[in-house]
Amino acid sequence: MAVPPERLLILGGTTEAAQLARAVHAELADRFTVITSLAGRLPPRQTPPGRLRIGGFGGAEGLGRFLSAEGISVVIDATHPFASTISQNAATACSAAGIPRILLVRPPWQQEPGDRWLPVDSLDAAARLLPALARRAFLTTGPGGINAFAALAEVWFLVRLFTPAAAPLPLAQHAVIVARPPFTLAGERALIETHRIDAMVTKQSGGPTDAKLQAARQAAIPVIMIQRPTPPAGAQVPTVEAALAWLGGRA
After folding, report:
1. What pTM was computed for the model?
2. Which of 116-120, 134-138, 140-144, 193-197 has the lowest mean pLDDT?
């Protein structure tokens, strides 16, 4: 009698999560059916193979109920490095249910010669540091990071968002551009030059070489780099290939 496929939950929202869903479908479809879960803040560029679920779970308890109801046997957390709440909820729910879980965590960016990075541990720390560095800043921390800079009336901000803001931004001086990656080096250089940017604030998201960091290096402007939160305890892999190998190696 054929053994039914296991049910894999991929916590997604990243390029790596979509790549993993496609890889499992292509190479391990006889062993796993895939459910990809997205928070729903951005529509997916392409629908991943398998079932797509959009929306929150209702905390660790809600995720635990979902795991039980759906018969999930393995979880791969491929969320963004700064999505600390869902990662912690996944760790808690999987531990309680005895379900294997692994983190797919993209490697952080590495500083290169010419970079002027200033690492900080939080958005608030970035806001405290910024006025001493700049009067015109490129803010690429996402919509959840803007409030930390609301008191900096003396700084003009160029704010990049992936989707239009739902409400006016709490910044005294600013302009907004709405665009989604990938971005080009030429385009990032043009933004810095056109808007006379003299500092950048971003998160240590990692992944492939980032055009905005290359542009900042070439323009010799400082980059306030917000460091990642500490991920929950558990096994980690840095690439889709490693996650696929871990999954394929399960007895």
Report:
1. 0.93
2. 140-144
What does residue 230 show for φ and ψ, rounded to 5 degrees? -70, 125
The answer as to whether 112 is a domain residue is no
Asked if residue 91 and residue 143 are part of one domain, the reply reads: no
Contact present, 34 and 25 (Cβ < 8 Å): yes
Strand partners, 76: 10, 102
d(CA 169, CA 184): 26
For strands 117-120 and 156-161, give the pairing. Answer: unpaired
Q: What's the pLDDT score for residue 236? A: 96
| Residues 6+ away with beta carbon under 8 Å from 113 | none
- The answer to whether the CB of 159 falls within 8 A of the CB of 175 is yes
Q: Which amino acid is at 230?
A: T
Identify whether residues 235 and 221 lie together within a single domain: no
- One-letter amino acid for residue 187 of the chain: G
**Which residue, among 72, 74, 82, has the nearest Cα to 39 in the 3D structure?**
82
195-205 residue pLDDT tens: 999 999 999 99
- Which residues, 6 or more positions from 166, have their beta carbon under 8 angstroms from its beta carbon? none
Query: Using an 8 Å Cβ cutoff, are 75 and 100 in contact?
Result: yes
Same domain, 127 and 97: no
Q: How many domains would you assign to the chain? A: 2
**The domain containing residue 213 runs over which residues?**
117-226
The answer on 173 and 76 residing in a single domain is no
Residues in a beta bridge with 25: none
